[in-house]
């Protein structure tokens, strides 16, 4: 999904290229967006489903719930692997389609003892969750007060349905937690790619293009990561 100006079409195009390199089975990629300019022709385009007005000053990813809308379900009738735009795929994706569980997602790296998921990578069948979008829209004000963001809502919703499952912890890893050295070592040590990672998630800073460039600043410092450039290739 791509909305607003945070990510350009290059992020969509690179994601397609990474999936094509790491997925052996036939696939169709669908991008839900409000601006399809520059997106490569192999990628299908769908509109962003409309959510009710949300009483939340900061954007918290609620648009991602549009992936469960009835109009999107008509476009995606098979098993869906949802991928955030700011991930870097570094290993085979086929096991993510074969892993057990009705709704596997990432267990949040910052709250390992709590039932909190990260929605950067999750798998579902649209037909299995026909009411999620309508349920959220009907109680949006209450849900936004109860949950900080859409991934907390998704975690709780799927847990109550008995569908929640976790990916193996080493499959989907956080760049900030699993790759960047601790401070102050990140000022001179190159970030490392964990050997068993299949998807590296770039939540917060840096984003993939920033990880490639590196940064030296008072509050944000990290060394360039050449392996990010290798995997985040557009061809």
Describe this structure in words.
The chain has 235 residues and is of the alpha/beta class. 29% of the residues lie in helices and 15% in strands. A 4-stranded mixed sheet has the order 3-6-5-7. A 3-stranded mixed sheet has the order 4-9-8. Strands 1-2 form a two-stranded parallel sheet. The protein is globular. The two termini are 20 Å apart. The mean pLDDT is 94.
Number of strands: 9
Count of DSSP H/I helices = 9
Name the helicity range: 25-40%
List the uncertain runs.
none
What is the H/E order?
HEEHEEHEEHHHEEHEHH
Cα-based radius of gyration, to the nearest Å: 18 Å
Side-by-side strand order of the widest sheet:
3-6-5-7
User: For the residues shown, what is the average pLDDT?
Assistant: 94
List its traits:
235 residues; alpha/beta; four-stranded mixed beta sheet; three-stranded mixed beta sheet; 29% helix; globular
